[in-house]
Amino acid sequence: MAATLHRNSILRAVLALFASLALASCGINSVPAAEETAKAKWADVQAQYQRRADLVGNLVSTVKAAAKQEQDTLTRVTEARARATSVQVSADDLADPAKVAQFQAAQGALSQSLGRLLATVEAYPDLKTNQNFLTLQSQLEGTENRIAVAVRDYNEAVRAYNTRIRTFPDMIGAKIIHGAKPMTPFEAKAGAENAPDVGGMFESK
């Protein structure tokens, strides 16, 4: 009788172990897959911000040739662009809210400086009809839209990943096997909810 009870106890322990492993296995592939998706979406965000930075550099050069008296504004944009491109957040940094916030702040500062620069265009009719400037304006407007889409897709991927690592049963594998940590969404800073109104600067009054 005692031997039977002992065997039953061992059997129950083995079954419990296998059940735990089965549950944990639910997150073995799904958790890293969700993580890689979020990292890929972050790469898209960075690529679009880099594209904007490149366009801003060309825009500054074009404005400088036609509006030399706006040197202070141009300098502020150039400095903001330099700060924005110097702050890099790797995929491994996405669990660090402070680093993501630093990137957000730098990009927000560039957005504000760019908005001020575009506002000065009203004082320069020749610049408003400059074909190179108009082309850059159109490209910037398209880039701002692509940034918004990339940020939205990244935040959705982060939401899916964070939900997965916090809900049963994937949370078991996330904690035991992967040591998964929540990723940080990308949030607009106060006063920077909207992209610079690039196109609006050129509408007829």
What does this structure look like?
With 205 residues, the chain is mainly α. The chain has a single domain (2-202), classed as Up-down Bundle (de novo design (two linked rop proteins)), CATH 1.20.1440. 75% of the residues lie in helices and 0% in strands. It contains 6 helices and no strands. The chain has helices at 2-66, 71-86, 97-119, 125-128, 131-166, 170-178. It is elongated. The protein starts with a helix and ends in a 27-residue tail after the last helix. The relative contact order is 0.17. The model is unreliable at 14-19, 190-195 and 200-205 (pLDDT under 50).
Please outline what is shown here.
The chain has one domain (2-202): de novo design (two linked rop proteins) (Up-down Bundle), CATH 1.20.1440. It contains 6 helices and no strands.
List the helices and strands and how they pair.
Elements: H1 2-66, H2 71-86, H3 97-119, H4 125-128, H5 131-166, H6 170-178
Helix pairs in contact: 1-2, 1-5, 1-6, 2-3
